Amino acid sequence: LGEAVGVIAAQSIGEPGTQLTMRTFHTGGVAGKDIAGGLPRVVELFEARTPRGSARLAKASGIVHVGEDEGKGIPITVIDDAGEEHLIVLPTGSRPTVIDGNDINAGDPVTDGPFDPKEIMEIKGIRETQLYLVEEVQKVYRDQGVSISDKHIELIVRQMTRRVGVQEPGETGFLPGERADAKVFRDTNKRMVEEGKRPAEGRPELMGITKASLATESWLSAASFQETTRVLTEAAIDGRSDSLLGLKENIIIGKLIPAGTGMERYRDFEVSAPDYKPMAYYSSDTEDPAAWLGNLHGTYSDSDVPAEA
Q1: Which end of the chain is more exposed for a tag (fewer CB within 10 A), N or C?
Q2: Coil/strand/helix, residue 181
């Protein structure tokens, strides 16, 4: 409690990152595509970017039917248990990794290549996306012989997935298209259900670390990161206040950070010294030093003076 876990996580990932190679390398099986490796791959993952030559994923579970390329791409149809067809059109020249008549599960790749985290989020949900990001980042560091605890990467990934895109606000105060904090969204919906009102509907969103930093509740923290003019202007127009809950915003205004001994629980001490007697105040402008020292006699009783050993 009171540990600056965000700072520790950033340093635990950033410092070993200096050992990663700034390069791209060719991966077998992906014809003509250079897959980012080393530090560029880590940046690609943390910014939630769509990788070059990314694999196409099945949208549903079912039976695969691979069609003929008629000049518009290779049609791959997945027929689910309900008989509904889900079509994926691969670019001309692509090589499917599935065979006609095979069973396939939602989220399985139908072509080679790295996965797009946003597509995983759409098909398999937030949990699978988080696990994929952690594993892919670890894979880059392990390939370079660097060991990092999962918890540091998990902390960053949690911040990337802490927003919910509001689709239907219901009777809440959310707006359509708003990116609400996931905890606030859940708590608000829980309260709406308890009050018999219509809750909001939304989908988890995956944000890169740059966008996630700018989307923080603290406008002081966001302004110190990027787009300072825009952040300050919007905060002023909206009349926003800052609760000063994080580290950066407290450092900016010169307050003690809410971590370690700066936490509220450590600052609620009252010093009680009932036997303390302050020394008389001496002013060099109005008093003679010899007279002031002489007047000190009697200020303290003999019982206040410790006995010599």
Answers
A1: C
A2: strand
